[in-house]
Amino acid sequence: MIELNIVQAVNQGLRRAMESDSKVLLMGEDIGKLGGVFRATEGLQKDFGEDRVIDSPLAESGIVGTAIGLALYGYRPVIEIQFDGFVYPAFDQIVVQLARMRYRSAGALYLPITIRMPFGGGIGSVEHHGESPEAYFASTPGLRVVACADSTDAYWMIQQAVASDDPVIFLEPKRRYYQKGEVDTSADLSTVPPMYKARVMVEGTDCTIISYGPTLTTALQAARIAAEDGVRLEVIDLRSLSPLDMPTLIESVKKTGRAVVVHEASSSGGVGGEIGQSLMQSCFYNLKAPVLRVTGYDTPYPPSRIEDDYLPDADRILDAVEKSMSY
User: Fold this and answer.
1) Assigned architecture for domain 199-325
2) CA–CA gap between residue 314 and residue 280 (Å, rounded)
3) Who contacts 311 (Cβ-Cβ below 8 Å, separation ≥6)?
4) CATH 3.40.50.970 fits 2-191, yes or no
């Protein structure tokens, strides 16, 4: 076991994937000599060369389009979108080309491309640097969308994403990048939990809290506070947004009878609404209260001086739990 923060875990996971398969290559803005703005690729160009760790022009559409061509020729590109809000110039390539190629070709062609994307707010940055665009991609058939929340998942899930024959949007919680955790790097990739399986982080009986990415830490904090008052919250790390592991969520909600979904993205059209509807269909007679959401607001991401008022915190989660338990 070694202690790694999330950005170090991503780096080590990429290194292991590149060592295991010579067809894995990295592309992105400033990822080579600089090692990326968050240093997630630091040292990889020095060790693997400029042909496998490629500093690209500042053109997201071009990066994704080039990766599609490389994938068609047998490579496994891993591309970095420097910040979540920079992905939109590549939206057409991702949704119209990347997501559809396997279906369009009746399975004859596949695009094993991983798109790494730091997402979410909380770093005191300017516009386009704190967004949560995951719902756009989770609602796009043909894309896999996953979010790591700790060092262990960052290390193993990035390798699983690279090994996938389907394109994967790999979301990394940038405000948790330097949160440390123990990682067993000696394990084998075939023995770790599947990438699309949700994980029960804390077992409870009173209410299920469903979260992912940066808000998982917030949900765990709320569970600790609630426990001091004798309220046992069950906390689930969703891990995969597409596909959703509904069996794990349904099992939990049938036990607790209540659910609160937490994410930074806006409420309307978000992942929380999809989860809530699915739980209503499957757990209608088990629910003791409506499925509630604690999310960002239906506005563009705010200036950094007021982002703490925008982001879900433990108090807002506990208020939702109290409302749920009052029914």
Assistant:
1) 3-Layer(aba) Sandwich (3.40)
2) 25
3) 121, 122, 264, 296
4) yes
Tokens of 155: 């290390």
Kindly report, residue by residue over 57-73, the tens digit of the pLDDT: 999 999 999 999 999 99
DSSP, res 40:
T
Task: Please confirm whether the linkage preceding 243 is cis (ω < 30° from 0).
Answer: yes
Active site residues: 129
Cβ neighbours of 9 (radius 10 Å) = 29
User: Which positions ≥6 away from 76 have C-beta within 8 Å?
Assistant: 21, 23, 24, 25, 112, 113, 114, 162
Q: Give phi and psi for 239, each to the nearest 5.
A: 65, -50
Q: Write down the pLDDT at residue 127.
A: 86
Provide the 8-state DSSP code for 301: P
Query: What mean pLDDT do residues 98-120 have?
Result: 96
In angstroms, the CA 139 to CA 280 distance is 19
User: 81-109: b or e for each residue (b if 16 or more CB lie within 10 Å)?
Assistant: bbbbbbbbebbebbbebbbebbeeeeeee
Q: Over 90: is that where the pLDDT of 260 sits?
A: yes
Average pLDDT, integer, range 155-166:
97
pLDDT band for position 97 (cuts 50, 70, 90)? very high
Domains 2-191 and 199-325 alike in fold: yes
- Residue 40 to residue 243: CA distance in whole angstroms: 26
pLDDT greater than 90 at residue 96: yes
* Residue ranges of E strands in 2-113: 2-5, 24-28, 53-55, 76-80
- The two three-digit tokens of residue 28, written as one number: 């992105």
Confidence of residue 13 (pLDDT cuts 50, 70, 90): very high
Q: Could you tell me the residue ranges of all domains in the chain?
A: 2-191, 199-325
